[in-house]
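Example record

Each entry pairs one chain with its bound ligand, pyridoxal-5'-phosphate.
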Amino acid sequence: MEVAAKALDIQTRLKQAAERSGRSSEDIQIVAVTKYVSNERAKEAVEAGFTHLGENRLEGLMEKQEYLQNKASWHFIGSLQSRKVKDVINKIDYLHSLDRLSLAKEIQKRSDGTVNCFIQVNVSGEGQKHGIAPEKVMEFIEQLSKYDKIRVAGLMTMAPHTKDEELLRNCFKQLANIQKEIHTCGMPHAPCTELSMGMSNDYEIAIEEGATFIRIGTALVGE
Ligand SMILES: *Cc1c(COP(=O)(O)O)cnc(C)c1O
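Structure tokens for the complex follow.
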């Protein structure tokens, strides 16, 4: 199926999920995750109107940026090795995977300006996942105040691979609760207004629980 047709389906579902939860669909941005697909397919997404694109590797990011001549906002959604920070950080608009102080330190050193970061939280507690444990997020964000290049835009999580709706919903709810708690603190470096959660299989639930950025790969551009 063409990207435009898939996009229409996703936008309809997004709207319905927003309505079910009393939200405006304008408050939800779709990050089109192009990491699996060709440059041509990514271009289709841009032509279908998507302005936020997501990549999880430096090589993919550079290739797509060159091909598309930067006609998008770029989201880095994968785990970022400290040694790659210098190559990545000035090419992106959002980093979705800040999860350790050593990474923050490297960003502070290498970035030309302020970086919008999402703190990746391992809500489900699965051992193989990246991210900060929920009970440590507040302390981590407090420690980030000394790095003036880092702006905590919000929180991000990857839900477990499951069809269990209750489990998914619970995961998203927990992230939303932590986000509200941090937002309420009013720390100048951490407005923390955004929630990056929801992928192809679970974005409708994520929207019902407050997602402001959903990251869609498979359902939008194909594998
Ligand atoms: C690949 C990826 C996505 C998109 O996954 P789909 O299931 O294909 O929609 C979203 N977020 C992250 C962090 C990813 O690595």
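The chain has nine helices and eight strands.
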